[in-house]
Amino acid sequence: MPYHAYLFEARSLQDYLFSGGKLADMVASSDLLDDLTESLLTSVLKSLNLSDNPGLSFVRRAGGAFYVIAQGDEGRQQLERLQLLWTLAVPQWLPRLEFIQILVVDQDSGYLAVQNGIQQLAQLRNLQGAALPAAGPFTRRAPRTGRAALRLWECSKPVEWVDEPLFSRRSYFLEYSQERLAAKFVTDTERKVTWPRNLNRNEGDGATFPFLNEEADVAIIHADGNGLGQLLQVLGRISRQDTANYARLFWQFSDGLTRATQEAVTRATSDVLLPAASFKGDHAVMPARPLVLGGDDLTIIVRADLAIRFAERFAIEFERTTEVFLKKLKADFPKIKDQDMPRKLTACSGIAFVKCGQPFQMAYHLAESLCQAAKSRSRAVASAQKLTFSPSSMAFHRLTGSLADDIGEVIDTELTVRIGGETGHLSFVTYSIGEALPGLPSLSALRELCRNVPDPRISESGTLTFSKLRGLATLLHIDPSGAQVYWQRMLNHSEKAAARTGKSVRSQPIGRFIDLIQALDTRAEMNMVFLRKSAGGSIKDGDAAWHSPLNDVLVLIGMEGAGQ
């Protein structure tokens, strides 16, 4: 009996999510996207009398995508009906959402049907769909998106013209008070939790983000699991040998990974976000706003002082929950050997710190670029150290000057200086969440480095202060030789202070600071706050002789200091 498969994938989810710019619009978009393969797909299947059909086997159903297998002529007809109705339903639910789909028929197994479908989807991803309706020269455009305006939205002040996607999500925002995605982040139903819906204190369309001060700094975190591609290749190899259990194996893997990610998010929320919630009456207003949670992907806006701790806790919990999930998967499928897959999965995060008024779409792309930088560094270190899995890590950056959406561009324009006639980078970019490895210093070591710098809020005295480190970073950009003089003056001041007490200069704050930097790579030569690059530490290997954690120290203190 021949096998058939219908594959659907939504595209450009982040572009759809961030178009419009307002947090309330992002909230509605995130709920609509989260609902796409859940209640909407369930409703479509129910209308076709396919919701309880044992002949349909889902291989994947999360993250804006689903793959489903059927057998025989009847199964083919069912998939054709599903494709027709689903193609009509999606544009009604999410107008202008880009998606690709394929129906593969008459294959020898469900595995071959899905694999052929995946290959064809890969070709479709390179095709750009038409954006309809086209906006002509005399068409009024929505100011937030530049697309053809549909109607005047009068529920906001001031009133504004909106396009079809904005009208759809704002209508959803008004009609539904229950938030699907945010509810997955808190399981303690005894607490009355409110998630913010706007970043502007002057807007009245939902709870305002609970900032600590007027700075209004936030962070966009994008986290992603490591090694999923290799793991799927292993499962594919096993499925070729056992095609009868292919659908069950991949469904259990997909569903188990989704549950493990959600549990890790819930624990991180409970440990980091809930204790920092701002209470208004009997409601706890959370200092964050979830945007994406699907498979092993997470995107969330978090108050700046909590972002690094949240990403760190998520990675730790993700390792723990995936270890339990993979252990059960191996037990249920004995053909999976211990050497076939790692004991646990790890995760990398990219964190972009921005002002709440800066463009979130660009900030998201920077967070995604930082996440990819962290994944690349972790893979390189794992390969060099012959580890069985890439270590969890994170990369972060604070946007202060010109906007950029790529960390490589940021390094070139903001973090590259001259040191001793050679090129230096002012950031290590990536830090491990856990133990330090050659070429990958640990986040705990960076925190220890920061603890040696006095709190920027108190009266500054001595030779090592936050403002003096910031001054050093500025001088490195505009006057490298002056920076050398500035640093030497700080050392001389410390030596005199140490001599008065009869102690070594290493007992002074600047001495301890130097020792902590050297501890990041004990084998490296040191010049001021720079280490001679040996095994790496920058995402742009080979184009810098020196690297320093100076910018990372300034960002970490500047962002977390306000919340301490």
Q: Helix segment count?
A: 16
- Low-confidence runs of at least 5 consecutive residues: 535-542
Quick one: overall form? globular
Please list the strands of the largest sheet in the order they lie side by side: 11-12-8-13-14-17
What is the straight-line distance between the termini?
65 Å
* DSSP, total strands: 20
Q: How would a textbook summarize the main sheet?
A: 6 strands, mixed
Question: Taking Cα atoms only, what radius of gyration do you get, to the nearest Å?
Answer: 26 Å
Give the rounded overall mean pLDDT: 84
Looking at this protein, list some descriptive labels.
564 residues; alpha+beta; six-stranded mixed beta sheet
At a glance:
With about 575 residues, the chain is of the alpha+beta class. It has helices at about 15-20, 25-45, 70-95, 110-125, 165-175, 180-185, 230-240, 245-275, 305-330, 360-385, 405-415, 445-450, 465-480, 480-500, 510-520, 550-560; strands at about 5-10, 55-60, 65-70, 100-105, 150-155, 160, 195, 215-225, 280, 285, 290-295, 295-305, 345-355, 395-400, 415-420, 420-425, 430, 525, 530, 545.
